[in-house]
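Appendix B: complex inputs.
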Amino acid sequence: MRIACPFCGERELGEFSYLGDAAPRRPHYAVDDGSDPVKLAEAFHDYVYLRDNVAGTMREYWYHGGGCRSWLIAERDTRTHEFKSVQVAPGAGASVTSPAGE
Amino acid sequence: MSGYIESQPLGRTAATEDAAANTPAAGATQSHRLRAGGLIDRQKPLGFTFDGKAMTGYAGDTLASALVANGVKLVARSFKYHRPRGIMTAGPEEPSALVEMRGGARREPNTRATTQELYDGLCANSQNRWPSLRRDFMAVNSLLSPIFVAGFYYKTFMWPAKFWEAIYEPMIRRAAGLGKSAGEADPDHYDKVWAHCDVLVAGAGPTGLSAALAAGRAGARVILVEEDTQLGGRLLSDGGEIDGMQAAEWVQRTEAELNALPNVRIMKRTCLFGVYDGGVHGALERVADHVPVPGPHQVRQRLWRIVARRSVVGAGSIERPVVFPGNDRPGVMMASAVRTYINRFAALPGRNVALFTNNDDGWRTVEAIHRAGGQLAAVVDPRGQAPVEYQSLVKASGLRVLSGFVSDVRGGIDGVRSVTVTGKDGRRQELAADCLAVSGGWNPNVGLSCFHRGRPEWREDIAAFVPGDCPPGMRMAGAAEGTFALGECLRAGHAAGLAAASDCGFTEDGGSAAEAGDEAYAISPLWQVPAKGKAFVDFQHDVTASDVTLAQREGYESVEHLKRYTTLGMATDQGKTSNINGLAIMAAVSGRSIPQTGTTIYRSPYSPVAIGAFAGHNRDENFHAWRLAPSHQWAAARGAVFVDAGLWKRAQWFPQPGESDWLQSVSREVNAVRNGVGFCDVSTLGKVDVRGGDAGVFLDRVYINAFSSLAVGRARYGLMLREDGIVMDDGTTSRLAEDHYFMTTTTAKAGPVMQHLEFCRQVLWPELDVQLSSATDQWAQFSIAGPNTRALLQALCDPDEDLSNEGFPFMGVREVKLRGGMKARLFRISFSGEMAFEISVPARFGNAMAENLMIAGKPFGVTPYGTEALGVMRIEKGHVAGPELNGISTADDLGLGKMMSKKKDFIGRIMAGREALTAPDRQVVVGIKPVDRNRRLRSGARIVPKGERPGPETDQGYTTSICFSPTLNHWLGLAFVQRGRERFGEIVRIHDPLRGEEYDAEICNPVFYDPEGVRQRG
Amino acid sequence: MKYSIFSLARAALTGHRGWTRAWRDPAPKSRYDVIIIGGGGHGLATAYFLAREYGIRNVAVLEKGWIGSGNAGRNTTIIRSNYMLPGNVGFYELSMKLWERMEQDLNYNTMVSQRGIINLYHSDAQRDAFARRGNSMRINGIDAELLDAAQIRKELPFLNYANPRFPIMGGLAQRRGGTARHDAVVWGYARAANDLGVDIIQNCEVTGFQRTDGRITGVETTRGPIGAGKVGMAVAGNTSRVAAMAGLRLPVESHVLQAFVTEAIKPLLPGVVTFGAGHFYISQSDKGGLVFGGDLDGYNSYAQRGNMPAMEDVCEGGMAIMPMIGRVRLLRQWGGIMDMSMDGTPIIDKTPVDGLYLNAGWCYGGFKATPASGLTYAHLIARDEPHHEASRFRLDRFLRGATIDEKGQGAQPNLH
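Resulting structure:
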């Protein structure tokens, strides 16, 4: 398996480590922002534990630790291992909405 | 009839003689060697032994061809019934002729005689027999075969239950297996390398050669791999005419042209065994399997990982046996193999050959035998007559052509004696013959096309499966794709080569395809001859046609069930000669079509690969990389004992003359620190430089405690959680400037923490102005600890440096100037509980720094200490480390819950609040000491309330970090105990059934030494 | 027909023509009390125990391909109960006890062979971790022994004792551990369940759930709709795909794990040896092949095949600890799709959907759990309450923080 790092070019799998699905976003909150603690805990539970576990094209995190140390988002088919695209990941995990505001 | 040398008595056996010293005269033993012809070098005779018997062959022979030339019929015993077996094929698909090669540490079981090149001094032995190949007692299994049918063991051996491990299974295990592996470490080396190309061509038969030539001419970077020693494929055996010249000449010219192309690389003795994702292909090069021992600095084999944008696979096809009684006897051979032995190796498998074929290609064998001057007993063809192009030959030679089937083969361990032919009308006749050549048609070698789980497709006209969906970028061509005629193969290879090159953007003139005739291939499918008797489908595993029928009867109808129930196709040949016949018979008995029945999944490797090759040089000391601390050389020179900590080698202790055990050394080191001064290389801790305007905010979010409030020039202990609320790591982080922090992590977690921090920075909070860089390898860092630390440092540092408590308070950090002008970072932090500093200099000065510490500290009796003493002192001080940071502890479990800020979000905060993680009865870190102070504690013992019976309900915790404390003069340690902090002073029972120990211990405060922390602030 | 040496000998007289199907090939009925989705070891064992222990015999097992075609047929056949944490310890020991009587229970020789398992250690820290695990086993009444280097050398003289990186200091042994013939376990449960009236329906893929007022009332399949009182999923590897049809999102990821077998050789390895520090474990099958494996490839996958880096990593581990297998040839590799749960521990529980039950998250350890998984899942389905030995394998443990994380890796499935 080879991954085309946008900075380093196509490199072998061994240079990368894997984190998984890039869909979950870390819930945003501030201390004492009035968030319902139960809802907040559920939101974090979903973020940390629940996964779509896509059978098909999945957006997922890879870390080029053996190269430029960039976090990347790849689109890859989990049924064939075929990479469709690889991009840098800035901000991909940041949530825009607060559970308190929902 | 004088085509071969007159038979010579084999006379001597070399069983008691030194084979090498008694090599028979060249040719003397080769009773079945033709006088002329073949691709062997008669100028280079080679001596070899099989089962101790000395024989000769020639350069260019395989072990199998040399055995054929020597008239050897019996080569092996089968897996289950121990039936005598000979040589069946002339290639890598061989199911029967497996031998043990070499000896001692190089003993190599299950080598196919058909692919093993002959070399002078080759020593091979038969296997899976006792006491000898000719008299094998295990052949008694054959008599029991009425009971030993497919899956019989699932129905019996169940009573009494204990007998399975004691009697039945050991018996089965001893009987099973084939050869014996070496008993000691493989002394040879293996290499692993990468190669990159545009077009990878596998197989150098007519198809592959055409493809390589076309792609090479078009300008693509081409790698051509061929598992044989020579290019040519079937052309080496069947010849033919190409572009008006003999095939051999065309191969030679083509090889020369390919060699002249700078963009083409030819790799012989290299087998493509797998295709993986992203165009990565696995290939094995046999570098030194054709010599007795690899040369100096030569590897035995080389594993190639070839990254190719496109591939053309011209893997050819495999001739298929026919299932009939007696089809496994020594002397029954595939027709194409008979031709290979005659044409390529000038060895005649039999003097009176019968041919059984259901297709036109089998008839080529008639010509080959005639040319060699051999005798043909008859041709048996269920179609009843010769193909048109052979009819004149039949007439001219008076060859007998029988319409019908071979329904039995008689013979013994020394080969075939006669062949029974049953006509279409049911009449039987017996023909004398010493060899039976069989052709059931050809199966395209589709394996590589299926390794991405593509399924092959059935083609009725050739009665065979052809490739279906290939892995990305792969083209199958020629016989591998079901195109058998020579001219067609040349054109198909050419077209595939051009297309592959064009896909990669290479469009120079690829020339035109070589030309040759398109011989017809007609076949009338024949899977199983309708006759009674043991008819084999899988020759190595002794799976018979009736086993297949039985599997169907019992409901194991799916081909995968068939395979698993009968072991069909699970032998070393992976069913190359048996799978299609097996599923065809299953199709027939279950009333389904062959394509409905389908194939099992093809699995890599295409051809078995030595485990050593996959490991390459990564074994012994090179198994994993070594990381050496910056003062490693210095420590090694002082005789330090080293311990592995992750990839690091760390000094564990420094034994002194007269010390008899580690405990003595470690206790001395601890005492030296507690009473004087010592130092320890702590450079293996992870170090991260954190810079930027938002560095403080960033650290606030990754640590549970605050760092933005940390003053410049100060250090603080920090704890970070995973997002699930469990402790991830700890360490000390210093603020070197307003926008510059220096973080340390544990040795074990340096990599994962860096990855985590980068995730937070890049993925979660890209808006923060913060940059990270790993500085683990850049700094040599030493902990200097003990009451005399300040005195030592004064001697090391510039006299102007104020190291007093006022000038350099506890948890202070700053850059200092050393005597001589060099700069260093100094941190006043303590892990030992003593007055201590850590000093950092660029890593290249690590050894020098250690020496300078020794010099500067000499007046104070400075003592280097290792990780053991470090560990003892941290346990005495109640600091948690690896055994407590176990991936399931919360901050509160470690007694650090109060550090969790309530004023900010940080990684793990919300999840850390879950009910089970904040339950009051959790196991928390406490101190533990034995009631009997002379008793030794051990780690991993269970803790049960005193007076209770140990069991799952009374199990309340366990000991983690244990040491002998030279400071307190008894064993002590840390433990996890339920509600432990409420139980200081309680006596509990320690249970250590693994080590047969049980005793009382007291739960106590984990800080055994200087609980007020006076010393580190002194 | 009962299997025994006598019936075998009798059958031999008639050329084995008298044997009948090991399990019937019925057409699906319109309705069952319980439908189990997934004809692997767990699904078939569940059906067997439903019929035998809980008297529920109107049961169908639906299998999309051939029974045993998932992980039951592509594992490394190891059985053991050497777990450490509460929740796991008792469950896997229950499983071990069921293994120990399986052949007599099923009248099928599944070749349960307690030749022992030894986990090697190479450092003080590893020894301490094994001591903790071994003592946890012992205090729960499970056999465990801590061996030193000399004892290991006596039993396994061919290991590499001179490896400068991983010197063998000792090992944790469980003598009752071993292997079983994986396919035979599937067939044995199928035959026994069939004999109790269970319908085993192959080539029948579930394509959807039927619901009435939120409650599951049946399934849609490639062979038509089938009604059911209760439906249990036992589709490890594809749990998320099947659960998604009922609108569930689970703490599970699918990952590929490769396994390997060599050409058959004469007996070499008595039991199972694991070299955790080098990501390698190995045993030898009765047929003679060395069966071995290592870590996950590391990325989400449904492809049932892996890549070379994992193969190389595993073989490097093998050569580091057992360099005498260098010339033994790797014959086949295969990949199974692991149901990796977020804490490395399985889930046996009801789902938020009424009438739908979940058996999932077996990670790389589902084979050894087969009998206990079947028994406890059958209990849950029959009684609507968890079996006491599986009472911690709950779906809400992630929300409550009661995860069971033997490896201490947290919510990162590819590290478990």
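The first strand of chain B starts at residue 41 and ends at 50.
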